[in-house]
Amino acid sequence: MDAASSTVGVEEEFLLADPGTGGPASNNAEVARTAAESGINLKLELTRCQVETNTRVHSSTAELIQELRELRLGVASCAEQNDARLLAVAIPPTVPHHFPVTDTPRYRRIEENFGLLAHEQGLNGCHVHVAIPDRETALQVSNHLRPWLPLFLALTANSAIYRNTDSGFASWRNILWQRWPSAGPPPYFASTDDYDAMVAMLLSSGNILDETMVYWDVRPSSRYPTVEIRVSDIPATVEETALLATLVRATVMTARMSLEQGIIAPPIQDEMLRAAYWKAARTGIDGDGVHPADGRVIPVRVLLTELVDHIGPALEELGDHEFVTGAIKAVLTRGNGARRQLEAFRKHRDVSDVITELATATLEGCHRHPADFHPWAIPTADHHCSHLSTGEGRPQIPR
To answer: Average pLDDT for residues 12-17, to the nearest whole number?
Structure first.
């Protein structure tokens, strides 16, 4: 599998928050106008407290990290100019009874057809696009990726605090997101005809209004020649987003190598996959996970090791094996967004501490120069970079 043909791009969705209260700030149109004046193209999301950034297409992890840093810094500045704070968080920690819907014709149609689902949205994810030659390959790759989707969710979980309280879940966003009729893990599709028939049924029944409302967590993109993986919460930091993108990219490459060898993904039971999803949303990286392929209940860190072993040749082809193993070790040590939220909240049971922690994480490492990129450098608890190697050889994922 040629790494040069498996380029990657990332979409990050963010919350705009009131600097005083931490609640959602409903001024995405104003922030987008300011961003446009600075040369940043921001996409408006369903609710007025959300914006989305889109990277260019990348073949280098270091270059992807640098653009993600620049985008977060730039958008944070535009938000500040409009009396808002940019937060990389998957669901607002403190919220009103409903979110104002962005005033576009399409979003108004969604509001009319889906009621409170539209008004209780405000959910922010991260979408990774990996180049793929055709739709048939994209669907077969999607089948290969289905067993790993819960693990990507556990790794990036970043929505533990909701309505000023501990939700009891690392990713409460995922629990809310699955209320949409086309959200969650996709069915196992044997062919593009099967896929098209399912989408046609969803359209004719009114379950979706157009093909962009096919919200499955892995799907052939309706806009680009890519397979799109959209299961994750928005990661707390740039480096965690880059880790996710690299893992996804290598998993797609591994799936394509399997297909070239004539290996078709075995079907995974829907019930097993749902159980793995629920467990991932519940505990994140801090506990056990369920392997959807065989039902084993094992620590998430062991599942991560199995994934890295599985995609090892692709990581070597990309030159990113060292980065991935070190980055996983760092996030397990420091904690992902969910753990950071919970640690902040439990100090004083005050959501303002959570907002402060999220604001710090959002721009963590963003002021560093491109030359400061190191293969396995991720900020730890003291918010400084450290080389988390074991002292000899390649860093190892803690077991």
So the answer is: 96
Residue 114 has pLDDT above 80, yes or no: no
The residue to which tokens 């014709």 are assigned: 105
**Positive/negative CA dihedral, 383, 389, 394, 399:** negative
- Overall pTM > 0.85: yes
Cα of first residue to Cα of last residue in the chain, in angstroms, is 30
Cβ contacts of 225 within 8 Å, gap of 6 or more: 131, 132, 133, 134
pLDDT tens string 319-342? 999 999 999 999 999 999 999 999
Question: Tokens 């078709």 sit at which residue?
Answer: 264
Q: Taking the C-alpha atoms of 44, 47, 48 and 51 in order, what is their torsion angle to the nearest 10 degrees? A: -40
Task: List alpha helices for 128-183, DSSP H.
Answer: 135-145, 149-156, 172-177
Between the alpha carbon of residue 324 and those of residues 43, 240, 353, the distances in Å are: 29, 10, 30
Q: Which of 362, 367, 398, 397 lies closest to 385 in space, CA to CA?
A: 367
